[in-house]
Write a sequence for this structure.
């Protein structure tokens, strides 16, 4: 009996084998999970997968894009994703959600004056051309946006801004030229007519939007064949002009305002002078008619003397009109009778 083991120890070997088997299965599951995660790529909705291979009959970028779903990566294979959703990227001086570094767009005007601005670009990669786009530039999507695409945007804008000045005559003079009036009644040329004739466009004002639209059209022609649709391009804020240009423009604006104020004063004085001339002409015409009336009827002078004598009109009155029914002789007789009674 001393050689017989207690019943509690008889199943010890089977329990150990069971634990070992469970541990082995768990280990295989972990290894399989690691292998699956490291050898597969999930392409999300709104993206396309681009596969590159190092081996096989056709190494390099594969022309067929991989749609959303779960895809295996074999030995020597790499799957990258390109976003095919419409996206807006802002190239700005200050850090933003798109980039932490300075990405402002630099360009110059027709005189070579340097300027910078922030630009927002809206674009979309076509699903059937994502592989072609990657095959051309061989860059990850974010690197492509910050590299070749930004360079193309800057070049397109610069080609258009180099055709226009910042502002008409802003660098040559800060005082506008106004054509002097040849005479008092001659029309005065409005401020800014020389700019309209000599300068068809400028970056300050509507010209900045025209430049951007032309640059966007050039980008659309450039990238359409590569599978990238340029949808919209906009200025973010205003263009940052050189300080010397800003000062000249402000001086010019002040001078134009002063000139307009002076022209308004001249026009007011002219209107007052014309009113005085019209009044003088009216008075002259009245005097002429009075003189003709006196010449044609000498008794008018006698009537005026009677009127002043009787107090009908003030002595200092220049003109006094008495109704035609008044008898001048009766007025004189009445005056004489009044004089005799006083004596």
């Amino acid at each position: 009996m001393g050689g017989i083991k207690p019943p509690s120890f008889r199943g010890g070997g089977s329990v150990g084998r069971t634990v070992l088997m469970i541990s082995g299965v768990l280990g295989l599951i972990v290894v399989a999970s690691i292998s699956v995660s490291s050898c597969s790529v999930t392409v999300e909705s709104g993206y396309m997968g681009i596969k590159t291979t190092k081996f096989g009959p056709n190494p390099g970028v594969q022309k067929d894009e991989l749609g959303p779903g779960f895809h295996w990566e074999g030995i020597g294979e790499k799957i990258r994703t390109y976003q095919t959703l419409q996206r807006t990227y802002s190239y700005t001086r200050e850090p933003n959600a798109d980039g932490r570094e300075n990405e402002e767009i630099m360009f110059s005007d027709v005189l070579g004056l340097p300027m910078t601005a922030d630009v927002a670009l809206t674009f979309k990669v076509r699903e059937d051309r994502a592989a072609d786009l990657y095959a051309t530039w061989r860059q990850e999507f974010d690197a492509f946006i910050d590299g070749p695409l930004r360079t193309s945007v800057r070049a397109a804008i610069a080609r258009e801004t180099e055709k226009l000045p910042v502002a008409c005559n802003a660098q040559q003079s800060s005082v506008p030229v106004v054509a002097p009036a040849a005479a008092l009644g001659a029309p005065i040329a409005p401020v800014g007519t020389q700019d309209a004739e000599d300068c068809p466009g400028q970056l300050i004002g509507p010209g900045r939007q025209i430049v951007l639209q032309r640059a966007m059209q050039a980008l659309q022609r450039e990238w359409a064949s590569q599978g990238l649709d340029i949808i919209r391009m906009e200025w973010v804020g205003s263009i940052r002009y050189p300080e010397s240009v800003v000062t000249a423009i402000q001086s010019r604006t002040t001078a134009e305002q002063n000139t307009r104020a002076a022209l308004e004063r001249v026009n007011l004085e002219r209107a007052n002078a014309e009113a005085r001339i019209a009044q003088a002409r009216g008075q002259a015409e009245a005097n002429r008619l009075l003189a003709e009336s006196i010449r044609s009827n000498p008794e008018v002078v006698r009537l005026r003397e009677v009127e002043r004598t009787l107090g009908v009109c003030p002595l200092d009155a220049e003109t006094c009109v008495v109704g035609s029914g008044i008898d001048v002789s009766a007025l004189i007789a009445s005056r004489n009778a009044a004089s005799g009674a006083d004596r």
Observations:
- Residues 298-343 form one domain.
- Strands lie at 40-43, 47-53, 60-61, 69-72, 77-83, 87-91, 105-108, 114-125, 228-240.
- The first strand starts at residue 40 and ends at 43.
- DSSP finds eight helices and nine strands in the chain.
